[in-house]
Amino acid sequence: MPVIIMGDDLKYNNETTEIFGNGNIVLRQGSMTIFSDFIYINYKSGDVSAEGNVMAIDADARIYSDKFYYNIKTQSAYTKTAHIVIPPWIFKSEKVKKEKERIDLENPVFTTCDKVSPHYRMEAAMIFIHGKERIEAWHTRVYVGNIPIFYFPYYSQSLESSKDPFEFKVGHNDDIGFYFYSKYYFLIKPFEILALSGYVGFDYMEKIGPVYNLSFTYGFNPKSNGNIAWRYAEDKTTNQRRWSVYSNYNHNFNDLTRVGLRINSLSDSLLSKDFLALDQVDMLKQEYYLSFSTSFFSNQSIGMDLSDVEQLNTTTSRYETTSRILPKISYSLMTLNIIPFLYYSHTANFERIYLPLNNDYYYNSSFAPKLSANTPKILNFMTFSGDLSLSSVWKKNSEKEQGWGDNASNINTNETLYLNIIQGGILNSRISHTFSKQLNKTEGLEYGGVTSNMINSSLTGAYGIFSYNASTSYNILKTKDELYENSELDRFSFLILNGSIRHSLYYFGFDSNISIFSQQVKNISMNFALTDPLKSSLWNISASVGFVNNLIDASGHPVIGSRMKDTITLNTALTFKVSDIFDVSIYRYYNLMEKALTEQSVALTWYVHCWRADFSWSTRQDNVSQFGFTISITAVPQFRFSKPTTAVPDYMNMIGNLQNVY
Length: 662
Prior knowledge:
The protein is mostly beta strands.
């Protein structure tokens, strides 16, 4: 790789292939740039020795030292008593060694606080910086001021993520009393092919006791990854062990073959309330799921699923199996072009499903070939598509049942017309018709075996900052006797209308459902947001209003007899900057029909240079009141660099000539 050298005085010895430089030296090779007062280069060995006010820049890393050793052949480097900046991190180290992308620091002190006396710092025995990817530290002590507060035998964090290395939160909740939450975030790469990132947490709740948390994602390559979340507590109020486990993993062997695993299990349904939050966990359901799929011949695939789903029985407070599939096997032939605009595909499935009430299994199998057609644009504003499919379904209701079970065949059609009414996306229309009919064993079936006969239509468009949409459907299948008050309007579903105005400073949107039969609005919601137009963005406000009409039911028909009251709700939110270091957020939820404030919260954020403190108080709709305090580390502002004028500039007594950019 070529080397460029500049300076006030450069001398080259042709016999020894050495260069001696003096005054404003600049050496560049690839991503490495070295500034110094003096330099010595031996081209034969590749050794470079730079002295006097040295600043070495390699990508985002800046290294400040009085002496700096570099090799132009191996691109390795070494120095002592150095000061390093890799935003947002600031380091001071007794020894620095660089090999390719990796930088090793011996006995370093590091922080993200650029104060002369940093608010916090960490000291370690060794640090390994792996390019822009991650930082590893061994035997790390954390100090606030001069007070040690934590020790980590091993610490690792991503340099690509803005996540804080640790997080603390204290507060009070009516259900669990006073609580303390703590999280330590990590990034571990024990092997070249395996990376782990997540957090270890310890919480203490006054009414429950200690709670232990572990959550991390892992990956063997970009296409094969998963995550695990675990929480455990021994509840001192009930003397019960309470826990939750969530795991999800997808492994791609190649672009065609993959396997997936998902587990979601917990001890009881009250964890969400007692633990305040459990990410990714459905409190009413537990599930275990394993899947495998692969593709072949470029247009065919086969897969297999095994699953067990348990639902909470609210009467017995126990989880009971509601669905168990052992197994489900599927096969599909993806789109095959027969002639221009005509395509063929088919699917086949087999399921063995557990019936918990009968303690038995039933079988279900299907095969569905399909023809599809798509036309090119007609008259530059219209296109048409349609498909015809035949499905054959075989069922056997019990393993104990004699015989081969039953078979039913169906025909399904779908036709869709797309109209570009006003060019440029200003107004488009979509009209479709779907039809389904059972072809055999139709005796006793309603509508002669027809199961669906529906027309769907929609209008969509956008013009400038405006966007709008309207849609409804028309049920042809209903008979005269089924129509409410024999009105043809009862064939229509709700008319859905929504629209929005989006601007960089403001937003307004509305959504509504209107009963065509009753000619009444069932529900409507309106949302509004406004942001301070000034560059400083001192404030923003938002509000939403919701209305539900209970004079009509979910079908759009009038409610007969007793009914629920109509509801009108109002949500308001305001965020504003009290000063450069204080933000305040206020949220309120009103039930206007009851004239009651049902939910509210107030949050104050305090930015203290490299720290951020959040104070919050809220009352939930279930009248549970809680308050909290969270403290976290924030990175220093953006950096501006210039060549140092002294070996160790007076910046935090260890960092190069940096200035904050505001």
